[in-house]
Structure formats: C-alpha cells, structure tokens
Amino acid sequence: MSLSSLTPQEIASRLETATADYERFAARGLSLDITRGKPSAAQLDLADELLTAVTGADAASADGTDTRNYGGLHGLPELREIFSPLLGVPTEQLLAQGNSSLTLMRDALAFAMLHGRPDSAAPWAGTPVRMLCPVPGYDRHFGLAESLGFELVPVATDAEGPDVDQVASLVAGDPSIKGIWIVPVHSNPIGVSISERRTRELMALPAAAGDFTVLWDNAYALHHLREPHPEPIDVLGIAAEAGNADRPLVFASTSKITHAGAGVAFFGASPTLVDWFARHTAAGAIGPDKVNHLRHARFFGSPEGVRAHMRKHAELLNPKFAAVDEVFSRELGPEDLAAWTNPSGGYFITLAVPPGTASHVVKLAAEAGVKLTPAGATHPHGVDPDDAIIRIAPTMPPLEEVEVAAEVVAACVRVAAYEAVASPRG
Ligand code: PMP
C-alpha cells in the first residue's frame, strides 16, 4: 500500500475527489444488493425443464419404483449414479436427500452431539466441543456450529487450503476439537481449491479426538468459471488409505446447479458412517422427495449432462465476475488501495481493503444504496480482527447493476482509505 508515502496535501485532494465521486452515486437513489451468493433468475431459468420432467403418467424410476410413494431412504439410485463420479464418491456411499446440504450438515452434527459417532466414546454434547474454522470462511458454517454449542477456533488458509501445520498442532493436543469445516473447491469466499497433497495431510494427521471429523462441504464442486478446473478428489479413498476412513463427511447439493430452493442435497461417507447417518435419519424420515430426484435424473441424463449445464452457468456468470474485476482494476488499481480475488469458480470475490476500514466501507455503501455482506461475516462470530475483508457476491443482480454496485464499492473504499489516513480513528 503506497498510502503512507503520500503527503497530507495529496491525501486531502484524493479524499476530496473520492468524496465527490461517492456523493454523485449517493444522489442517484440506488437500491442494489450484492450480499448473498444466489443464482440469478436467468440461471434458474436454465433448469425450468425440471418443472415438467415428471408427470403422473411417468413417475416411475428406472427400476419401476413409483417415486410418488414413501420409501427409498438412500435416495434414487439413478441420480446417485450421476453424481457419484462428479463428487468422487462411490454410488453406494452417496445418499441423495432433501433440498439443502446445510440441513444435512446440521443433522450430522446434531446426531454426533446427541448420539455420538460410531467411533465416539460418548455423545459430543455435555462436554466442551470446538470446531476449527478456516478463515475467511462461510458465515453459515460458523453460525451452525455456534448454534449447536461449538466454540469456534479460527485457522489460517493459504493457496492450497487450511494451514495444515496449525491444524495439526491444534488437533494433536486437544481432544475437544471435534471437527473442521472445509470447502474443498472454489471455497466460499476466497475461491481456493484444496490440493490433493493438503487433503492427504489432513486425512493422515494424528488427532487427539478419535472421532475428529472433516466436514467436506463440496458446495462448489462443479461451479467452474474457466478451464482448467479442479478434478474431484477421492477424499474417502485417501482417508481410508491413511487409516482414517471415517474422518470425512462429504456434502454437496444442486442448489446452485438447478433451482436453489428446490434442488437435491447429497451426503457421502465411509460405509460405517453412511449407515450411521441413515440410521439416525430414518428415525425422523420415511424417505426423501424421490419425485425431485427423478426430475433431476431425467433433466441431466448423465454426468456429462451436469457438466454441460454448468458450462451454461459459467457463460452467464463470467461477464459479472469480469465486470467487478474490471471496475476494481480501473478504480482501485492505480492507487493500489485494495486487493481482490479473481476466482476461477464459485460464487464470490473477496475484497481486502486497508485494515480498519471494511466496516466503514460497508456502511458507506449502504448509505449510497448498495447492500454488502456485513464486514466480519467471513470470520467466526462475525468479527474480523483486522476489519479488512469484504465478500462480494456478484451472481444475482443483472450485469448492469453489478457494474454500478462495484463502482459504488470502489468509491467507498477510496473514501474510507483516505479518511483513515487523513484522520486515523482511535
Ligand atoms: N455450503 C456453502 C459453502 C455454501 O456457500 C452454501 C450456499 N451459500 C451452502 C453450503 C448452502 O447449501 P444448500 O443450499 O445445499 O443448503
């Protein structure tokens, strides 16, 4: 950052220009929202054939099952077969369930709390439990773990995934550390994809808790913006080779592939943990929505059908990601005021602003009519100790709105940065 080399006069003049730019935007009465990573209406439209893919006349699955009836707790086999190679999970170890993978994560953790895992000495509830949270990370992961009583422990992330030395030293000495969140591909929000080497290290590291669990949330497994893209990692095979077959629980869904609120969620694990999960699920469910499974299986037809569908998403999303990069490069690049990611997939751009200014940027943007995810949301308990990280979600609004929103954010970053050096806050 070259801010410290500017004279007070230069700072004052840049602040004046930035404020004038900001005020022009504020006067426009904008109402834009780039807070959540939702698909756009055009993306949802791509999957509308789902709505007619099953009728009363053809509701039978490949093996003749009437999908309208109860049963089939593990989910429809033909849909599990399609997603098996895409997620790197053998079909018999992959369950297709309801519409939300977050719900399956909640269930898995709740089952562990109430009943313990098969390898637990006792249920997790009633003793202190801690969860490792790679940062910056996904706010709903943190909120879920917190709501179940976990203490959240931040760990750093680098270009290959979570800092494995930090994880190894924490996990080796503390039996209350029961798990770690991992978003292995195009992570939310920084867009990092874990390397196979890092995966092997995480699956092999010695843990004081015999039931240490890796929550492998592969939410963006197929959400590539460009080539080459990461290939599925056989996390269950790697864990088994390392002698820790039961360590990873795999989650994924079609939320950002088909219809976000009406997709299909998947759970994968070792045979032992699949039995465990299915057994506890069975206490509260007679079977998932197999009509929805059948619609999805017919709509895609094959793994290649899913890949082809995701290429259409990439065509819609790429211009939006490019627009934000272009605006930030133009507005923030020359003055070297911030750094941002240019991800090769996923749903987010992470913007790093001068420390101590992120909350102010978010507030200024809100006052100018642009809603951003609260600063700090990418950290446990919503507190970013550096107050520097902002998550940008460019997927949902139309392209023109994304461009204007990025311009407003850039103006806010300039105002906040120059204000901070002109009159540092205490
Ligand atoms: N995991 C991650 C990392 C996500 O970003 C999201 C959606 N924002 C989810 C899970 C939610 O998935 P679902 O819709 O399947 O509950």
SS content category: alpha/beta
- Total strand count, please? 14
Which kinds of small molecule does this entry bind, naming each only once?
A: 4'-deoxy-4'-aminopyridoxal-5'-phosphate
Distance between the termini: 20 Å
- Helical residues, percent: 40-55%
Q: Which second-level CATH architecture of the largest domain applies?
A: 3-Layer(aba) Sandwich
Strand content: 5-15%
Count of distinct structural domains: 2
User: What is the averaged pLDDT score?
Assistant: 97
Question: Numbering strands along the chain, what is their spatial order in the largest sheet?
Answer: 2-10-9-8-7-3-4
Number of helices: 13
InterPro entries: AspAT_Ic, PyrdxlP-dep_Trfase, PyrdxlP-dep_Trfase_major, PyrdxlP-dep_Trfase_small
GO molecular function: DNA binding; L-aspartate:2-oxoglutarate aminotransferase activity
Protein name: DNA-binding transcriptional regulator, MocR family, contains an aminotransferase domain
Organism: Brevibacterium jeotgali
Descriptive account of the structure:
The chain is of the alpha/beta class. Helix content is 40%, strand content 13%. The strands form four sheets. It has a seven-stranded mixed beta sheet with strand order 2-10-9-8-7-3-4, sandwiched between helices. A three-stranded antiparallel beta sheet has the order 11-12-14, covered by helices on one side. Strands 1-13 form a two-stranded parallel ribbon. Helix 1 runs antiparallel to helix 13, helix 7 packs across helix 8 (235-241) and helix 11 packs across helix 13 (399-422). The longest helix is centred in the last third of the chain and has 29 residues, at 303-331. It is globular and about 75 Å long. The protein starts with 7 loop residues before the first helix and ends with a helix. 4'-deoxy-4'-aminopyridoxal-5'-phosphate is lined by residues 37, 100-102, 138, 183, 188, 217, 219, 253, 255, 265. Keywords: Aminotransferase, DNA-binding, Transferase. It comes from Brevibacterium jeotgali. GO terms for molecular function: DNA binding; L-aspartate:2-oxoglutarate aminotransferase activity.
